[in-house]
Amino acid sequence: MVLLGDDASMRLLEEAEGWEALSDLALEAHGLLIKEPGPPEIPGVTVDTQEQDGITLSRVFIESEEGARRMGKLPGHYSTLEAPQLRSRSVEMEEKAGIVLAQELRRFFQALGVGPEDETLVVGLGNWNATPDALGPKVVSRLTVTRHLHRMVPPEKRGGLRPVAAIAPGVLGLTGIETSEIVQALVAQLRPKLVICIDALAARESQRLGITVQIADTGIHPGSGVGNRRLGITPQVLGVPVLAVGVPTVIRAATLVQDALSQMGRPAGPAAERLLQPYFHSMIVTPREVDDLVDSMANVVAGGLNVALHPSLDVDDLLSSLF
Question: What is the pLDDT of residues 110-122, one digit of tens each?
Answer without folding.
Answer: 999 999 889 999 9
